[in-house]
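Lecture notes, part 5. Sequence design as translation. It can be helpful to think of inverse folding as translation between two languages: the language of shapes and the language of residues. The source text, in structure tokens, appears below.
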């Protein structure tokens, strides 16, 4: 075999599928089976990654929904507080107006 300048032998090319008669016990579909196993392994890994991403997004959705509910409750409470303060101001102004009117009469 010819050597390269680095002293290493050149890489061998992968063997092509045998075209001639098969030896006893040799499986002609071995390369095809190995390919299918690799495809199944990749699909399994992809499925696991997608499941994990789904769970992360599902949790994000749950968190966002909970936060939205908390904000709605906070908004409702602020509206109640605002109405109460508005009524209190109205009552105070009404009292001052009555007192002022009674003093001027």
């Amino acid at each position: 075999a010819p050597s390269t300048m680095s002293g290493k032998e050149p890489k061998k090319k992968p063997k092509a599928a045998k075209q001639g008669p098969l030896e006893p016990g040799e499986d002609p579909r071995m390369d095809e089976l190995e390919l299918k196993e690799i495809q199944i392994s990749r699909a399994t890994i992809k499925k696991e990654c997608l499941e994990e991403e789904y769970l992360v997004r599902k949790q994000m959705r749950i968190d966002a929904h909970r936060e939205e509910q908390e904000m709605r409750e906070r908004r409702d409470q602020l509206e109640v507080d605002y109405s109460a303060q508005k009524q209190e101001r109205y009552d105070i102004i009404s009292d001052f107006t009555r007192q002022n009117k009674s003093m001027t009469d």
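The translated text above is only one of many valid answers, since several sequences can fold into similar shapes. The longest helix spans residues 30-104.
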